[in-house]
Amino acid sequence: MKIKLKFSKGELFNGALLNVCYNANQFLSLSNSDVNIIDLSDCSWTTPLSILPVASLITYKQESNYIVWIKKPKASRTKSYLDIIHFPKGISKPCEIKKYKDRNYTPIVYFLNSVSTMRTTENVINCLRGILTDKIGPVDGLADAITYSISEIFNDNIREHSQSKYGWFSAQYYPTKEYLDMCIVDNGITIKGSYIAQNIRVKDDSEAIKLALEGKSSKTEERGFGLRTTKNIITKSLLNGKFLIVSGSAGYYANKKKQQFFSLNPYWHGTIVSIRINKVKGRIDIYRYLE
Amino acid sequence: MKTITRMKIENLLGRIVSCRQHIKIIRKRVPTFNEKKIVFDFTNVEFVSRSSADEFLQLQKQFKEKYHTEIEFENMGNFIKKMFNVVEKSYNINRKSSIHIDKKSKRLEEIAYNF
Known about the structure:
- The complex is a heterodimer.
- Chain A is α/β, with parallel strands linked by helices.
- By secondary structure, chain B is of the alpha/beta class.
- Chain B has a three-stranded parallel beta sheet with strand order 1-3-5.
- The chains are: A alpha/beta, B alpha/beta.
- The interface between A and B is large, with 53 and 44 residues.
């Protein structure tokens, strides 16, 4: 079985999600009794939002005993870039991640979702905090905004609710456009699934995302602020950013001026959060946006 | 005789404290008998997430109610103090929805180029 994947070139959010859906659909045709070839030969441009879901799907299939071979991009720059970011499996050791301090991107970072790796996760988040703040700062409060976003999405959503074995992270800074894109992906039970697991009735994936953004926890009333406050920090603060979430068959997009729910096909088995933040000159006070 | 126990958060959890479950683990290490006061020392801690701050405050409340033991937080940086203040204030606030689902929910294909 051979599948050919598509990647957007140009504006990163525009159309990128369509290709994520297209690529996810391609993975459905893979067979566990065959040699599967993932053809990336025409890939000349990748972004965190386009490459991370693919990386997670390849890892998931390989761990499910699928034989997966990757046909690397013809474009030598893209090929070497994918090698440098450790596509598809990624890395998780802070000492390895620190080597990316002087680059405009992070490697693909995977977090193993287990109690024994919590301290490592904290070290990785600390490491990413340093690397990313250097790129778009340094501005007072920026490190907290970045740390808050990554930690709330990973710890509050993936670790506590998703039942995903891994969480994946990737980021890229675009110096000429002066913004940073980050993406966090899991292959878990979706937001709707996490509500259902706690016996909370949810009509569909859109309603589940809506509840999560309203701050309704799938556990207790004292929880559930992570996505809501992250979205507010990203879109309402001086970061003037963009926030995109996909879970199951629904998604939600927000920037400072608008927000929009949408449906998508095929279904994403898990949750994708993609964030863009702009280079800022003023102080960021995340505490104004926390509740 | 009751004692004061000092616990250094940096040594227990590191400089970034972002995982709620992590604090549940240190809960087991906190002594529960004959303690007059337990001090969590945040020296060198750079960040505490909202959920972790909530977990610390819940721990403080539970120890006071259950064991009559005071838990105090010391040497917190300004940002960490702010986070604890935000969480404490939130306990008395009813959250209101600000999200509205458009009844004519759009398909991704219709809007994907307008993000």
